[in-house]
Amino acid sequence: MSIDIDPLSADAGLTVTDHIENTQFEVYTDRAVDPVATPEQAHYFPVDASVTVETASVEIPRVTIVETRAGDGTLLTRGDSYAMPSDQYHVGIDPAPTKFYLAFESGFSVSTTDRTTRIDLDAPAEVALGFRSLHQVPAGTIETPTDPESLMDAVSLLGSALQTTSPERSFPTLRGHPPLIEAGDELRVPDRIEPPDSGVRIVVPPTYEHLYPIVSLAYYFAADVVPGDAPRIEGDGWSHPLEPDFERRAAEALRQSFHFDCLARTEGFYPVDLHERETTDLDLDWGRLYDLPLAERLGEYLDVPFQRVEPELPQWTLTTDVRPDPENVEMLPFVAGELSVVRSPETVTPVTAGEGGGVGLFRGSGADVTLSAASLGPDEFVRGCAGTEPVRGADASTDRSAVPADADFVQPEPVDTVEHAWVGEGVPLDANKATLDAYYRRLEAGQVEQSRISVLVVCNDEQMREEGEVADLYGLRDMVQFDIEVRHDLTRAEMRDVLESDVDFLHYVGHVDHRGMQCTDDYLDLTDEDLDVGISAFLLNACQSYRQGEALVHRGSRGGIVTLSDVANSPATQLGRIIARLMNGGFNLRTALNVAKRELITGYQYIVVGDGGATICQSQSGAAAVVDVHNEGPPWNLSVKVYPNGPYGSGSLTTPNTKSATANYYVPGDIELRDVNESQLELFLGLEVLPVFTEGGLVWSDEFD
What does each C-alpha distance from 267 to 64, 70, 99, 285 come to in angstroms? Predict the structure, then answer.
């Protein structure tokens, strides 16, 4: 079973552990309970596990919205403070680390504090508690020839994962993971993969360069993809051209239609107050649009010029460059499932090592700069120089090249999204090197032996002990249990044991060079070793750690952060501490590195390998958030950037927990908070540890003065 429900040992209530998403949370009751397994059919929505307990109250230690439905599923009300008379109810609590439902027959009231949500029944009663993992798996695998025209039939089936063609499919829980694709000698489709008849067609020339950039559109529109000369999206009676500038027009169609769906869905099952709906300058009949079939609705969406929509669109989260090669077809369902903007570059700019050992063309401060060992201060040393006398200061310029001799570095075109991934040959600068094996591991529903999050910090150099103190930054969470271990000066055999262990996150501090990871007795070269890697995610905070990190992913890890060149010790220590706090706060690898780059120009010496969406835990509020303070206050003007993260994907709803914000926002979003007084700011920043950017740079919400 993917979800375990156990009584608390030191309190009244339950511990809920989702072994798929590696999350855990507690539910409190007014008395000790003995949970009894209950049929899953007791709940209006599907659940993975259900138990019944006798209690007069249910409390969850987070601020949530409580949604109440009648016994037949009719939505009655939702909010954080209300009372209902005696009757039969289905109640949903959102957000929670899993989908969380209650079923009971009683009158009740809902109340919230600044940290908890509580449901009090009129009298003790039997309450069925149901939980569903937010994990999504494909319905099957499509085999297909990989020539572009044959591949169109497979891409046309990606939309079979949609659980609705209404605007509610903009909710991540109603999209589902697209079916997988693999090469075969003919088209073979499992019986359970049946696309809805959306009435939408996407016409493109039968080339990889035209097919790859529309995979997210094919998935989200449940569209048939057919060959033709003039790229376009069409339905009965309308046609929307995708030229000139094909890739840009495809991205605009995705962003515009998704935005309009988020606004129109407020006319459906979830009639919430949505900020984007209240502030839009577009005078459209959203109720009528909601009721239209998908194709007709999409035609009216795309009839609105993008220039009118663009000012109110949030910054999109992810762009993925997929090289136009047949061997990349298996990546398409994963790219589409993330609703990524997709480009398919035919050519790419190669990058060579800069003089003095650095990798050129790292962007920073509005200009291209070269970061090399030669730029170090006189008392600084780099982490790639193994031995008793590390190279320091200007003398480091005599060190060997910081780029491995066989590295094929490429410089992708810049993106206007938050994150950037690269699929194909070459080591990309400033982009996530995405790999198929890592994405397949995202789907693996492996059981874990314990419900705690395990973090191992390994420091293999005495002069880097300062970064070993990052162990203090992991586990700073009230509701998540961490097992944190720090180990120093490991031998080669001990390092092998570490890499093969079942650890959720490895934070490595030490030396790496062309011989591998330095240990006390020898080097461990992961590219030559036959290892069964067990660690889930990692940070290899050492010089030139790309090849070793790439090997970790190929041998079993899901993903990690690595370096492309030599890194100086002091900024590496700073970056390590930032990454530690962000991963502890539930950020995924890509977003965590993006935040670190805002603070440190040396962050551009790092990239993510493998699955950039990997996390080690969920953030306390679900999505990942970064706060920007725009004045010295009080009162303060803030903006909160909210990023899709794990199960809280694009289209999730979020509400800042401040008195000045009452509406919902959809994710991704940029939420503006004006005239926030001191008590409101203190309350808001005290709810969880968040990165806060001020004119002076990055601080943390628990340190903000």
Answer: 22, 19, 23, 10
Rounded to the nearest angstrom, the gap between the alpha carbon of residue 389 and the centroid of all alpha carbons in its chain is 41
Angstrom distance (rounded) from CA 675 to CA 660: 8
Bridge-based pairing state of the strands 482-488 and 453-459 = parallel
pLDDT of res. 465: 65
pLDDT band at 474 (very low <50, low <70, confident <90, very high): low
The H or E element spanning position 483 is strand 482-488
Summary mean pLDDT of the chain: 86
Give 641's DSSP letter.
Answer: E
Query: Tens digit of pLDDT for each residue in 33-83?
Result: 999 999 988 998 778 899 999 999 999 988 899 999 999 888 899 889 999
Strands 13-18 and 3-7, bridge-based pairing: antiparallel
Contacts of residue 283, defined as CB under 8 A and 6 or more positions apart, other chains included, come to none
Task: With beta carbons less than 8 A apart as the criterion, state whether 688 and 701 touch.
Answer: yes
Alpha-carbon Rg for the chain, nearest whole angstrom, is 26
Q: Residues with Cβ < 8 Å from 355, sequence gap 6 or more?
A: 372
- Strands in 427-428's sheet, in edge-to-edge order, are 349-351, 409-411, 427-428
The backbone torsions φ and ψ at residue 263, rounded to the nearest 5 degrees and listed phi first, read -75, -40
Q: What is the DSSP string of 306-321?
A: HHHHGGGPPPP-EEEE
464: pLDDT confidence band, cut at 50, 70 and 90? Answer: low
The pLDDT value recorded for residue 449 is: 35
Confidence class for position 703, pLDDT limits 50, 70, 90: confident
Q: What token pair was written down for 438?
A: 């890592």
Alpha carbon 391 to chain centroid, angstroms = 38
Angstrom distance (rounded) from CA 624 to CA 291: 33
Q: Please tell me the distance from the alpha carbon of residue 108 to that of residue 637, in angstroms, as a whole number.
A: 38
pLDDT at 668: 95
Cα–Cα distance for residue pair 337/334, rounded to 1 Å = 5
Is the pLDDT score of 571 beyond 80? yes
For range 565-580, the mean pLDDT: 88
